[in-house]
Amino acid sequence: MTTDLEIAAGVQVPATALAREATELIRDTTDELIYHHSRRVYFFGSLQGRGRDLSFDPELLYLGAMFHDVGLNEEFHGSGRRFEVDSAYEAKRFLQAHGVPEDSIRRVWTAIALHTTPGVPEFMEPEVALVTAGVEYDVLGIGYEDLSAEDREAIVALHPRPDFKRRILQAFTDGVRPKPRTTFGNVKADVLEHFVPGFERGGFVRTILDSRWAE
User: Fold this and answer.
1) Tell me, what's the pLDDT at 95?
2) How many CB atoms are located within 10 Å of the residue 201 CB?
3) In the prediction, which pLDDT does 6 show?
4) 168 and 69 in contact (C-beta within 8 Å)?
């Protein structure tokens, strides 16, 4: 069992068997980088939810946060799907195996699948919006000043982020390099363009102009 504390910055990790099993699964199947990042996404997303006065299900938010990056694992390198979709389906399989209602599964799946699609999740259910908010806070620093320094420090003390910027970019690169076509139209094309020599990103305009249609 994990020895991590279950509360930081006034945010409690859901004390349910489902959340505990998800925690152990993610800790066993991902590295420390992704595990700590995923936990921070939950804490930061929860605080963002409070700040926005959103009513959300903490357990569903936690599950979305914990599974959102498992699709970067090596076992999915040959899937041909976006890593976000692989992550979403892993969460779905886990939740179905535990008899979670379909509407809850849908919300978790959607939260994970859309977490790198800016401009859409914020208008959806709170759990969907807040997984993205937590990711954007931890990875991109969006809304950095929305949370207090004390809350940030409490969460990072519990789940440290040494050399995080370089290491998360490396994880993104390793996770999507084997399936470059899945980056068309999304932010991971930026990652491969920056770190993979010879990568050529697909262009929306060029794709239209080069299609088989005569006009």
Assistant:
1) 98
2) 14
3) 86
4) no
**Six-digit token string for 123:** 């208008």
How many Å apart are CA 96 and CA 101, to the nearest integer? 8
Mean pLDDT by 10 residues, the chain (215 residues): 71 96 97 98 98 97 98 98 98 98 98 97 98 98 96 97 98 98 96 96 93 95
DSSP string, the chain: -----SEETTEEPP-SHHHHHHHHHHHHHS-HHHHHHHHHHHHHHHHHHHHTT----HHHHHHHHHHTTGGGSGGGTTS-S-HHHHHHHHHHHHHHHTT--HHHHHHHHHHHHTTT-TTSGGGS-HHHHHHHHHHIIIII-TTGGGS-HHHHHHHHHHS--TTHHHHHHHHHHHHHTT-GGGGTTSTHHHHHHHHSTT-----HHHHHHTSS---
Give the position of tokens 């994880």.
171
